[in-house]
Amino acid sequence: MKRFIAKIKQEWERSLLVAVGLLLLGFLGWVGFSLLSEEGGTTSQTQALPSVPDYIDTKSFAFMQPANLQAKVNPMAFRKKLPKAFVTPPPKPTPSGTTAVKPPDTKPTTGTVKPPADTGKKPDGKQPTTVAVKPSGDKPPPKPQPPKPPPRKITVLYRGMYKGMTDRELAFIKADDSKSKKSKVFYVGEGGKVHNVLTVKSFNRDTVVLDCGGDREVTAHIGKKQEIVLE
User: Fold this and answer.
1) Contact call for residues 187 and 172 (beta carbons, < 8 A)
2) How far is CA 163 from CA 39, 170, 200, 222, in A?
C-alpha cells in the first residue's frame, strides 16, 4: 500500500489527470441519465397519466339530427307582423223615440245632361285680313369680332457650348414653344434654326445671340431663361 501511494506521489500529474477524467465521466453519465428519464419517463412516476381523448363523440353528429321545433309551428311560415286593417266601427244604436237620418247620397244622378247654350257669334264666312309689315330701314347690329389669339412666345434656356464626335462647336439650347406647347433641345451652330423661327447668329461660352426677324436680336445668357415674344 505504501509503495502504491509512493508511486502515485511520484506520478502525481498522471494521477490527477485520471481523477479528473473519472469525475468528468461520472458527471456526463449523470446528465445523460437525467435527460433520458425526463424524455421517456419511468414506471415509478407518481403523476396520473392523461386521459385518452374521445375521438368518436356522439355530440359531433348533432347537426344530422332533426331540429327540435315545436309541434304546432311551421318553420316556413311568414313571421313578419303586419299592421291590422282599419275597420269602420258600426253605427251606434239610436235611442228609442228618435229616427235615424240617412246620409245624403253622393252618387251622381243618371239622366240626360243638356249641353250649354252657345251664345257666341257664328262665323260670317269671310277670310281673315292680312296686314303686311314693312321692314325697317335699320341695319342689324354687326357681329362682334373674335378675340385675337395671344402672341406666340418662345422661352429659351442657353445651356452652353457642346462638342460632339466632330470638332465643330454647337450651341446647346432648350426652347419651349407656346403655340405647339412642345419643349425641345437643339444642338445648332451658327445659322441654325430654333423651332423654325429663331436663328442662331453667334454664341460663346456665356451668351447666345438669336435673330428674331425684322432686324430684332435677343441675347440669352447661360443658365437664365429668356422669353421672346414674336409679333
Assistant:
1) yes
2) 83, 6, 16, 16
In this prediction, residues 114-135 reach a mean pLDDT of: 57
Give the cell for residue 56: 368518436
CA 106 to centroid of chain Cα atoms: 65
Q: Are strands 225-230 and 193-194 parallel, antiparallel or unpaired?
A: unpaired
Contacts of 219 (CB under 8 A, 6+ apart): 207, 208, 209, 210, 226
Contacts of 175 (CB under 8 A, 6+ apart): 154, 155, 156, 157, 183, 184, 186, 194, 195, 198
Residue 173 has pLDDT above 90, yes or no: yes
- Give the dihedral sign, CA 90/91/92/97: negative
- Among the listed residues 155, 156, 213, 217, the one whose alpha carbon sits nearest the alpha carbon of residue 188: 156
Q: Rounded distance, CA 211 to CA 198, Å?
A: 6
Please give the model's pTM, rounded to 2 decimal places. Answer: 0.38
Query: DSSP states of 42-64 as a string?
Result: -TT--SPPPPPP-SS-GGGGGGG
Q: Alpha-carbon distance 186 to 208, whole Å? A: 13
Residue 60's pLDDT band, with cuts at 50, 70 and 90, is: low
pLDDT attached to residue 194: 92
Compute the residue count for the chain: 231
pLDDT, tens digit, 9 for 90 and up, residues 94-103: 665 555 556 5
